[in-house]
Amino acid sequence: MLSHLATKGSPRLQQSFLTSTSTTASYIVRAAMSSSSMAVPTWATVDPTKMGTSAEPYAVSNLVGGKWTKAQNTMTIPHPMDKDMHPIFTIPDTQVSELGPFLDSLKKVPKSGVHNPLKNPERYVQYGEISRKAGAALSTPEIAEYFTQCIMACVPKSHAQAAGEVRVTAAFLNNFAGDNVRRLAKSFGVPGDHYGQMSVGHRWPYGPVALVTPFNFPLEIPVLQLMGALFMGNKPVLKPSEQVSFVMEQFLRLLVDCGMDPNDVDFLNCKGPVAQELITGVPVRVTQFTGSSRVAELLLKATGGKVKIEDAGFDWKVIGPDVGDVDYVAWQCDQDAYASIGQKCSAQSICFIHENWKEVGLLEKMQAKAAQRKLDDFTVGPVLTVTTQQILDHTNKLASLPGAKVLWGGKELTGHKIPEIYGAVEPTAVFVPLEEMMKKENFDTCVNEIFAPFQVITYYNDDNLDLVLQALEGMSHHLTAACVSNDPVFQSKILANTVNGTTYAGRRARTTGAPQNHWFGPAGDPRGCGIGTPEAIQLVWSCHREIIHDSFVPSTWTDGPQS
């Protein structure tokens, strides 16, 4: 049995929640699991169910040069659900003056990488085995639940959403077990002009690389991008979001238990400007950034464009004229807009509904679904990057447009103790008339992404479908989209005139599809990148190198005139 399958504490996984009640709050708090702890793997260094219960919170470490280290100062991460509880953990607040070991570590890596098709090829095989072991570990119920609880400790989302993130990560790792890592670097040959000549195209690593990852998927996004970087022969430094750092710290400890050399990855906890100093201070060949478009633009400018970005996503859904499966469509709209408390880059930001759906009460069904969300099961909860007032201000600004109105939500959650630095609002939808939305003075406000349980809704008909297409053309970011229609003529018109990189089409179309089995990423931007698939890994973490073999001088060669 692999060592990481052994566990501390209870041999049988128990999932337990303690109910916290007060005059101001009544919700379920994840806490210590009664008399015995949950199954904590032997390689792990923290029990996530106990976070927030101790005056001395867990201290996350940096990893550099193969060693776990601290920094002189720390940042404290508050409990996201209860401002009166203890912090959940601290992270190193690494300063520019402490970057020396990270700079030295990356400077040791040549441009040709740690491995490539001609150098250390056995490492492709090693990482196939590491991926197999890690995938097997995440596929066991105990370790899957461990990471599910880690995610829920710092990004309160429903158990189903957190467990789904773990499943996708496990499936990705299983996909690249065995020989599939080396197949990412498959070369191809083209016959030359004469005997002894052949050109061979290779996928070549960049060498020292960096990842900056977001808070909303603290396991899936960093793991998929990190492993892609490692598979292709790079040496990555990972800078996670501060609020969720401990999740990837624990995953790195799992990778080491699965056979990864700890020297293969550096793990840096710091504020954004310090990470930028590292990225620009050493020859980082490429940085993969997932996060806000504002930070992406700053990083692109600082690095001279050496960034692969998966940034903002103001994601649209167009519901076509063919009405059917109303309950399903309403359920999917609710999931797309409000699952994970709306904090997905693929979340449904705007929904264009054909007027034919008025008669079947689609909006009323969507409103009823939104009303079922509650703090008790984390289907509503804290918004980690936008405050309550910012969300309500945006809501009121849109609702003040002529003909606009709040359809549901638009209020602060009641009975909560979420810290003021976070947002706490009901799932919200604002109706804006299409013609009003399309006015020059209103359009940018209507299509401004707000990373929260919030969406814009509008109606259209057969006569103004082209206005919908104008709206889709005018949006600046093209990540995900959904065309909810089985009408082939309507579907073709929408798909032929749009560009979003991950687009679902058909009655079951959604915006929040990010599994491991297909490309997920934006389109229409040469800086854009994908995640999860072989093509995405090759695009982001390797470049093309052509080697032309030309070996034999013919016996009939004679010196001729110069040219």
Automatic annotation (TrEMBL):
Keywords: NAD, Oxidoreductase. One of its GO terms (molecular function) is aldehyde dehydrogenase (NAD+) activity. Residues 134-508 form the Aldehyde dehydrogenase domain. It comes from the Eukaryota. Coiled coil: none annotated. Belongs to the aldehyde dehydrogenase family. This is Aldehyde dehydrogenase. It comes from Nitzschia inconspicua.
